[in-house]
């Protein structure tokens, strides 16, 4: 839902990958993450998996610049040069709000596009921008719907639209479909796949849904305070590290 801005033009010389090199995080004398090294590539969906307490949220906060870390996070262009601070879009697991509040989808999205309070009105120009943003996630039909009346899947598509405005270099999805029904889940992930293909952005998705990861991820990082395994979904889910971490057989493929 948040985006960090940087004025640059997307294109062949845009962000190519994000390199994490020996990233570590400590808090109160406790080591939360140590020696985290892997790459997030543009045009790919990288899934971050691991048990509760593995440090997934901590790593996301480090990527978002919300927590101090040691090591290096480098943003690299296609020529292996350092890339200026990238735009990052973030879709949270949920958005806590009062469902009785008389706020529409248009009001919510417009609040990020104009300085004056939305209760003073939304101009035609801003409404057009809101509609354009919502159309990216097939949510334009929700524009005048009350926020509290949205289904879980509809709300996540609205939050995704907000994360895409302005268009990010890295899109972070933090358990974005927990509690979303099957139809909403399918539409959300189809939308994400289309965005990956059309905008060649890097996507990092935190998820506990193995079937979802199998279907949509290009690469998987198994995390438990450190990186235990990386590879394709098949490679990670069939690894001894995965079995040892979750104390069960690797999940079966859902056809």
Secondary structure topology:
Elements: E1 15-27, E2 30-41, E3 45-49, H1 56-63, E4 70-77, E5 88-91, H2 105-110, H3 124-135, H4 152-163, E6 170-174, H5 182-199, E7 202-206, H6 210-216, E8 219-223, E9 227-231, H7 233-237, H8 240-246
Parallel strand pairs: 3-7, 3-8, 5-6, 6-7
Antiparallel strand pairs: 1-2, 1-4, 8-9
Helix pairs in contact: 4-5
Task: Describe the protein in words.
By secondary structure, this protein is an alpha/beta fold. The protein is 29% helix and 24% strand. The chain contains eight helices and nine strands. The protein has helices at 56-63, 105-110, 124-135, 152-163, 182-199, 210-216, 233-237, 240-246; strands at 15-27, 30-41, 45-49, 70-77, 88-91, 170-174, 202-206, 219-223, 227-231. The strands form two sheets. It has a six-stranded mixed β-sheet. A three-stranded antiparallel β-sheet has the order 2-1-4, with helices on one face. The longest helix has 18 residues, at 182-199.
Task: Describe this structure in a few short sentences.
This protein is of the alpha/beta class and 255 residues long. Helices cover 29% and strands 24% of the residues.
Task: Write a concise keyword list for the protein shown above.
3-stranded antiparallel β-sheet; disordered N terminus; disordered C terminus; 255 residues; 29% helix; single chain; 6-stranded mixed β-sheet; alpha/beta; globular
């Amino acid at each position: 839902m948040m985006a960090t801005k940087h004025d640059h033009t997307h294109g062949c010389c845009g962000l190519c990958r994000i390199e994490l090199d020996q990233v570590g995080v400590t808090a109160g004398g406790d080591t939360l993450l140590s020696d985290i090294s892997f790459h997030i590539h543009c045009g790919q969906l990288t899934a971050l998996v691991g048990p509760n307490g593995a440090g997934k949220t901590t790593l996301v906060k480090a990527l978002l610049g919300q927590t101090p870390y040691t090591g290096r996070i480098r943003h690299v262009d296609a020529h292996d040069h350092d890339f200026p601070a990238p735009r990052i879009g973030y879709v949270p697991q949920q958005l806590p709000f009062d469902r009785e509040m008389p706020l529409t989808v248009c009001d919510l999205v417009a609040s990020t596009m104009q300085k004056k309070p939305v209760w003073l009105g939304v101009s035609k120009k801003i409404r057009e921008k809101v509609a354009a943003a919502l159309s990216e996630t097939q949510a334009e039909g929700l524009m005048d719907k009350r926020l509290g009346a949205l289904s879980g899947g509809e709300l996540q598509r609205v939050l995704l639209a907000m994360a895409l405005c302005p268009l990010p270099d890295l899109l972070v999805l933090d358990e974005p479909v927990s509690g979303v029904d099957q139809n909403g889940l399918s539409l959300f992930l189809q939308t994400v796949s289309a965005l990956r293909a059309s905008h060649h952005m890097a996507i990092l998705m935190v998820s506990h849904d193995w079937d979802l990861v199998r279907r949509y991820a290009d690469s998987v990082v198994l995390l438990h305070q450190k990186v235990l395994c990386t590879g394709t979904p098949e490679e990670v889910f069939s690894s001894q590290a995965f079995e040892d971490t979750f104390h069960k057989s690797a999940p079966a493929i859902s056809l």
